[in-house]
């Protein structure tokens, strides 16, 4: 057994006994926080607010991270074509998506959107507790979304890990670009 199979089977074995009807409902709701339409809408709202405040550089950084995340996830899915997991414990009320499994688009989209929002928009908040809250939520939401994807049996754990990696990389690049432009406004 290779490391990918070991990680995927270990995660599947860990979440299988956790299933409860009430938790199924909670995690089905939580997984929608990673829907492309939701992450793009949240990011678009923040981008519009930033543009109204004449903060076009952070708005561009957030928009770029979210758009690139969506495009990369869909492109890699088509390129790799990994089938979805076949698990007996998938909740009946959450059907298996028709798209390929690798990487998790929900993990990419939520990490790119929420982490970049937490880092970029959060950095501009005046109160320290609000900055901390923005960062904690920016990190916690993608973790919750990723867990929900494995729990619901629609992704392997390594799909989610790859999605988090892609989304986090884009969010960190966006935060770096935003900080660079703020230090060097004439570039």
Secondary structure layout plus pairing:
Layout: H1 3-15, H2 21-31, H3 36-52, H4 56-80, H5 105-123, H6 128-151, H7 157-183
Helix pairs in contact: 2-6, 3-4, 3-5, 4-5, 4-7, 5-6, 5-7, 6-7
Summed up, what is this model?
With 187 residues, this protein is mainly α. Helix content is 73%, strand content 0%. The mean pLDDT is 93.
Keywords:
elongated; 187 residues; mainly alpha
Task: Characterise the protein shown here.
By secondary structure, the protein is mostly helical. The chain has one domain (33-183). Helices cover 73% and strands 0% of the residues. The chain has seven helices and no strands. Helix 2 (21-31) crosses helix 6 and helix 5 packs parallel to helix 7. The longest helix has 27 residues, at 157-183. The protein starts with a helix and ends with a helix. The model has no long low-confidence stretch (mean pLDDT 93).
Strand count: 0
**Number of helices in the DSSP assignment:** 7
Sheet with the most strands, sense and barrel status: none
Portion of residues within helices: over 70%
Quick one: overall form? elongated
Helix and strand element order:
HHHHHHH
User: Uncertain regions: pLDDT < 50 for 5+ in a row?
Assistant: none
The averaged pLDDT comes out at 93
